[in-house]
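Dear U.,

Please find below the material for section 3 of the report. The protein was modelled together with zinc ion; I have listed the sequence and SMILES used, followed by the predicted complex structure.
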Amino acid sequence: MARDKSIRITVLGTRGSIPTCGVNYAEFGGNTSCYLVEAGGESILLDAGSGLANAPSEFVRTPTILLSHLHIDHILGLGTYQRLSIPGAKTRLCVPAFDQQGAQEAIDRLYSPPLWPLRLGDYGGDLQIEAMQDVMRIGDVSVETKPGSHPGGCCLIRIRYGQKTLVYATDFEHGDEASARLVEFSRGADLLLYDGQYDGMGYETHRGFGHSTYEEGILVMRRGNVRRLLVVHHDPHSTDQELLARERAVGRPDVQFAREGEAIEI
Ligand SMILES: [Zn+2]
Ligand SMILES: [Zn+2]
């Protein structure tokens, strides 16, 4: 449980696109996007990638999953979410407005035979799909969303509790307009989780894929006066060695690459 007035973020999965595993990926981890945010007694899960399998099954209050978008790497963990095996255990699943229509159908398509043995509604747990609001409250925690920059759409999520602010900018491709929007959205934040799937060179061959670089993340951090940057959504081909080399090259204690299993308190 987070200390009073602080926000605690635990990285449950931070790999982009597809899970990976092996000795070369042990330090940063191979599960796809999922972050547990604890504040004011509330538990919020950012995305439901394969890292959701690392989430606890018991929570003090009903947990809320906020989906940035419906891409498969962000919902891959729903089928193995342990809480779904507990009869009657409730979880709210908030889907962005642009994905709301058809969200149930898309999730049912993935989680039903022949692709998966059963539908999520057939589990004992109670998963309630809701539309995400532009501004919403979860207990004393306020949540705000804005459109990001990604094929098919993806939302930027800002979480505020007391004086602390966290911004989640996954699956975000930089660009003049999009980056300016993110700078405003994250102004003064204590922590920015930023899509750094590529480095500058890797990005050149992946323009338009909907992802960014840690270098661009540092620019947003600087322009938005953000205290700390956590680079997330690592490319499935980026080894520990490569990610460590990038982190060392940046050489700043306030810029780190996310490691599965680590917890950060702001
Ligand atoms: Zn993704
Ligand atoms: Zn995506």
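For the text of the report, you could mention the following: Residues 240-250 form the longest helix (11 residues).

Regards,
Y.
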